[in-house]
Amino acid sequence: MARQLGGKLKIKVYHLDALFWKPNWVGVPKDEQRKVQNELVRNEDWLIDGNYGGTIDIRLNAADTIILLDIHRTLCIYRAFKRMMQYRNKTRPDMGEGCEERFDLNFLKWIWNYPKTKRPEILKRLEQLSKDKQIIILKSPKEVQKFLGKV
After folding, report:
1. Residues 6+ apart with CB under 8 A from 56
2. Helices 2-9 and 141-150, axial angle in degrees (round to 10)
3. pTM
């Protein structure tokens, strides 16, 4: 969705996974993540794709529009598994160079637990920001396509 939206709006898209994973799945330290994101949001126009909870404040505070894909976890699990198979032993386009796709049970567990562990706090933060920012919550692939069609 981020690539399609960026293309329609003619805005550069930054994929956090591509920025914060070095070859062989070595993560970028949190202080470097914060520095990079602080620089990105200084640009006049930007679209950032990713879900890094430890640095979400940077993106939420700087954004004028926030889009949350609140898709049911069974579909998210299916798509993640499908992506693991599609890109197995290859680097996908939105991932850091040298990070070949692999089966990751911990990631699938993270997705499954997301509605209970992460979602409530994110929704609470979005509610707090809703007076100052445009908040868009899309709950299905059909809603995503409808939204993209209107842009």
Report:
1. 122, 125
2. 10
3. 0.89
The 10 Å Cβ neighbour count of residue 100 is: 14
Distance of CA 102 to the CA centre of its chain: 19
pLDDT digits (tens, 9 = 90+) for 114-139: 999 999 999 999 999 999 999 999 99
pLDDT tens, residue by residue, 79-102? 999 999 999 999 998 888 899 999
Residue 109's region, left for phi above 0, alpha for psi from -120 to 50, else beta, is alpha
Helices (H), the chain: 2-9, 16-20, 30-40, 56-62, 73-86, 105-117, 119-129, 141-150
Domains of the chain plus CATH, in order, are 2-150 (3.40.50.300)
Cβ 15 vs Cβ 49: under 8 Å: yes
Q: Look up residue 132 and give its DSSP letter.
A: T
Q: Is 67 helix (H, G, I), strand (E, B) or coil?
A: strand
